[in-house]
TrEMBL record:
GO molecular function ontology, one term from the record: calcium ion binding
Subcellular location: Cytoplasm
The protein, known as: EF-hand domain-containing protein
Pfam families associated with the record: EF-hand_5
Swiss-Prot/TrEMBL keywords: Calcium, Cytoplasm
GO cellular component terms listed in the entry, alphabetical order: cytoplasm; spindle
Gene Ontology biological-process annotations: cortical cytoskeleton organization; microtubule cytoskeleton organization; regulation of dephosphorylation
């Protein structure tokens, strides 16, 4: 039972938590410790004659452990266990490269520090973060991330809101408004965010920045898109406004289904109005930009499942693609047969039940994202229809580079 807020029990519990986390933080290697370990590794390793790589055998490993413990202290000792040495790939002489080992130490320290920082923000001490707690964690990282530290002050709050949403999209599958800290630590999201620390902005291409959800470029792009769509500037998007997303290439039936499945009834604009708020828009964009992930495909499948039965029939595919076909013809493309496309999709999926396509079928066939694109976006179908030409163009660009 949780102690009452402000009670002696509550204050004692909070103090105990603070002291525990402080002690755990003191046991971590700091930046100077890590630098000292790297120097120690390099000074006591051997150079591989064939590759020039810096390596160490188990005897070197034990010697380095002794030197590091003398110079840094007992807190580095746990990294030099026999089991850790066995984790790394060995050459014919039984040696491991020092760089992967050092990167492992850095990542372990980084994740442990993140765990401590998140636990400090976890007001309920239940192992989950609420949106405002996740935003506070991200806000605390900004000064230490090379590509974000010069962010305009007035954009920080909006950035944290956008960045936090990706964690909830991937780490809160049941949409409870609480992201599991363990899932956050193991997710690719945290790695993507930390990448902004490893590289200076000058070394990152515009494409790479746009593809990383956590980059400042990406956050500003998403914010600009929402503002451009919000014609009446009421802070939410109507169906008509959302139809203009991606140059209007998404089908009307898909937009309708997005509102049916993923948009809460709005308090703005009267009793029965339903408009998409900014958080729902972020989920929408995340789903479209991550169609090949289980989370993105799950979001889209709910929209494709027209009757909420947990599977798609040939009739569903026909209905969904009819809108794509209309946009296809309006775009001046050649005539095509909807039944042929439907049969092609069935061949791509090869469902367990020949009469139904389930979400699991889409996930198992490894082409679920492509199939979803074909059914909701005329541009997605065009990309599939022209995949051979696009592949050839990509190969030519690589050869030229």
């Amino acid at each position: 039972m949780k102690p009452e807020e402000g009670s002696i029990s509550s204050r004692v519990q909070r103090l105990a938590k603070y002291r525990f986390l402080k002690k755990q933080s003191e046991l971590l290697l700091n930046a100077d410790d890590l630098d000292a370990m790297w120097v120690c590794l390099r000074e006591n390793c051997v150079i591989d004659d064939a590759t020039g790589a810096e390596k160490m055998n188990y005897e070197d490993f034990c010697h380095i452990a002794t030197v590091c413990t003398e110079q840094i202290g007992q807190k580095c000792k746990r990294f030099f266990s026999p089991s850790n040495f066995m984790k790394f790939e060995k050459d014919d002489s039984g040696r491991i490269a020092i760089l992967p080992f050092y990167l492992y130490v850095m990542r372990t320290v980084s994740l442990t520090q993140a765990r401590i920082d998140m636990s400090e923000l976890d007001e309920d001490s239940d192992g989950f973060l609420q949106p405002h707690e996740m935003e506070a964690y991200i806000r605390g990282l900004i000064p230490n991330l090379a590509q974000l530290r010069d962010m305009p002050t007035q954009f920080v709050q909006m950035y944290c809101r956008i960045a936090a949403r990706k964690f909830f999209f991937f780490c809160d599958p049941h949409r409870r408004g609480k992201a599991c800290i363990k899932k956050v630590l193991l997710s690719n999201c945290l790695q993507e965010l930390m990448e902004l620390h490893q590289e200076s902005e000058e070394e990152v291409t515009d494409t790479e920045q746009a593809e990383n959800w956590f980059s400042l470029t990406s956050a500003q792009r998403i914010c600009d898109i929402f503002l451009a769509l919000d014609k009446d500037q009421n802070g939410t998007l109507s169906k008509q406004e959302l139809k203009e997303y991606a140059d209007g290439t998404l089908t009307e039936i898909f937009i309708e289904r997005v509102f049916d499945e993923h948009v809460r009834r709005s308090k703005v604009g009267g009793g029965n109005s339903r408009e998409m708020d900014f958080e729902s828009f972020l989920d929408f964009v995340l789903a479209l930009e991550n169609k090949d992930t289980p989370e993105g495909l799950t979001y889209l499948f709910r929209c494709l499942d027209l009757n909420g039965r947990g599977f798609l029939t040939t009739a569903d595919i026909h209905t969904l693609f009819r809108d794509v076909h209309q946009k296809w013809i309006e775009g001046g493309n050649y005539e095509l047969c909807i039944e042929d496309v439907r049969d092609e999709i069935w061949d791509m999926v090869k469902p367990a039940d020949p009469l139904r396509i389930s979400l699991q079928d889409l996930l198992s066939c490894k082409q679920g994202g492509t199939i979803a694109s074909m059914l909701i976006d005329v541009r997605g179908f065009w990309a599939h229809d022209n995949r051979e030409n696009l592949l050839q163009e990509e190969e030519e660009q690589v050869e030229e580079a």
